[in-house]
Design brief:
Largest sheet: 8 strands, mixed
Strand content: 5-15%
Number of helices: 14
Order of helices and strands: HEHEHEEHEEHEHEHHHHHHHH
Helix content: 40-55%
Radius of gyration: 25 Å
Structural class: alpha/beta
Distance between the termini: 10 Å
Number of strands: 8
Strand order of the largest sheet: 3-2-1-4-5-6-7-8
C-alpha cells in the first residue's frame, strides 16, 4: 500500500500540504466524526479496508472502541467500508496516509505481501508523538517485526491474528465472539491486544515468534484447505447427477456433524465410516469410482488417496486391526501409483478464476 505521492515534504511545506489535503478531504466528505470526547485509549485507525479489516472495525465499535479512519488502496473502497462502520470514520486512500488522525491503536490488516511496504509508508507519513501508541497487524504468517519502521514513530509493535474465517464483513463482525486470537509482540502491544480480545469476547494465546509460519500453516489447513476439500467432494457428488446447489445442501450438514464430533472428541475418536472400520472392500470401490478421467484431472483422486493415508494413521491410533489396515494401505498405494502424474504435468487451473480475486485486502 505504498502512497503514490511518496514521502511527505518536511517542515512548513509538510504542514501546508497537510492542511491543503485535509481541506480537500473535508470537501469530499471524508472528514469523519470528531473524537474529542472519546478516550484516546479507545481510538483506532484501520489500514486495510478488506473483509477482515472491516469486520474487525465493526466488532471493535460494538465493543466500545472508536474507529476514526479506514484506509484502502482506493478511496472508493475505503468509503464502502466506512459505510459499514457506525462511527462514520474518515475514508482515506493509500496516498493520503498523512491525513490519518492520531489514534492509540493503528491496526494494519493489509494482505501479507503488502505489510512491510505499508509499515514503511506509515512511518514516512506519520509524526512522532509523546503519547504511547500501539501498532498491531493481523497477519497469521508474519511476526510484528514487519512493523519495525513504526517503532521510530513511538509505536509499540505487535500482532493479533484471529482464528476466524471471514467471507463477508457484515456477517463476520459477530464471528469473533468466542473465537481464538494468536497474540505476539512487545509486552505493551501484546497487553493491548489481549485487552481487545477480551472486549471482543474472544480468547487470546501466544506462541514464539519463530513459530508463526507453522501456526499459520495449521490455520490454513483447518480453514482454507477444508474449503478446498469440500470443493473436491462437491466435484465428485455432482458427477452423480446432482446440481452444485443440491450437492452443497447435501454435504454441508455432514460437515457440520463432523465439526461437532471434533468439538468433543479427539480426531481418532471422531473418525467414522469406512476408514474407522478398515473396510478395504468399500474403499476399493471408492478408488475405482474416482478413477473417472474428469475427477482425475481435477485432482480429486489424489486428494482422496493422500487423506486416506492420513485416515489410516488415525484408525491405527484408535486401535483398529493392523492387519485390516494393511489391506487399505495396499489399495491406496496401488491407486496412488496409478494416479502419479508425469514429471512435466502441471495441475489443472480453473480458468474462471479472475485476476480480480487476487486484489483483496
Amino acid at each position: 500500500m505504498r502512497p503514490r505521492s511518496g514521502r511527505a515534504p518536511d517542515g512548513r511545506d509538510a504542514r501546508a500540504d497537510r492542511d491543503r489535503r485535509a481541506s480537500a478531504a473535508t470537501r469530499d466528505g471524508v472528514e469523519g466524526v470528531r473524537t474529542e470526547s472519546v478516550p484516546f485509549e479507545k481510538t483506532v485507525a484501520v489500514v486495510g479496508a478488506g473483509r477482515l479489516g472491516t469486520a474487525l472495525a465493526r466488532a471493535l465499535v460494538s465493543s466500545g472502541y472508536h474507529v476514526s479512519a479506514v484506509v484502502s488502496r482506493r478511496r472508493r473502497r475505503a468509503r464502502d467500508a466506512a459505510r459499514l462502520i457506525q462511527t462514520n470514520p474518515r475514508a482515506l486512500s493509500a496516498d493520503e496516509l498523512e491525513l490519518l488522525p492520531s489514534t492509540h491503536l493503528l491496526l494494519v490488516t493489509t494482505p501479507d505481501d503488502a505489510l512491510a511496504a505499508t509499515a514503511a509508508d506509515l512511518a514516512s507519513a506519520l509524526d512522532t508523538e509523546r503519547r504511547r501508541r500501539v501498532a498491531l497487524h493481523a497477519s497469521g504468517a508474519h511476526s510484528s517485526e514487519l512493523l519495525t519502521p513504526l517503532r521510530a514513530r513511538g509505536f509499540r509493535l505487535g500482532s493479533m491474528h484471529p482464528l476466524v474465517s471471514i467471507s463477508d464483513p457484515r456477517d463476520g463482525a459477530e464471528a469473533f465472539r468466542g473465537g481464538f486470537f494468536c497474540v505476539e509482540g512487545e509486552r505493551a502491544a501484546a497487553s493491548v491486544a489481549r485487552r481487545i480480545v477480551r472486549a471482543l469476547g474472544g480468547h487470546a494465546f501466544s506462541i514464539e515468534t519463530r513459530d508463526k509460519a507453522l501456526y499459520h500453516a495449521a490455520a490454513v489447513m483447518t480453514s482454507g484447505h477444508t474449503v478446498a476439500l469440500f470443493d473436491a467432494a462437491l466435484t465428485a457428488l455432482t458427477r452423480c447427477g446432482l446440481t452444485p446447489r443440491q450437492a452443497r445442501a447435501a454435504l454441508v450438514p455432514l460437515l457440520r456433524s463432523t465439526v461437532e464430533n471434533l468439538s468433543t472428541r479427539t480426531p481418532e475418536r471422531a473418525l467414522t465410516g469406512s476408514y474407522a472400520r478398515a473396510d478395504a472392500a468399500t474403499i476399493g470401490k471408492h478408488l475405482a469410482a474416482l478413477a473417472d478421467p474428469t475427477l482425475d484431472r481435477r485432482g480429486v483422486t489424489r486428494v482422496y488417496t493422500i487423506l486416506g493415508e492420513q485416515s489410516v494413521k488415525l484408525a491405527a491410533r484408535a486401535g483398529v486391526s493392523r492387519t485390516r489396515l494393511r489391506e487399505v494401505e495396499r489399495a491406496l498405494r496401488d491407486a496412488s501409483d496409478a494416479d502419479a502424474p508425469p514429471a512435466h504435468a502441471a495441475p489443472e487451473v480453473d480458468s474462471s478464476v479472475s485476476a480480480a480475486a487476487l486484489d483483496d485486502e
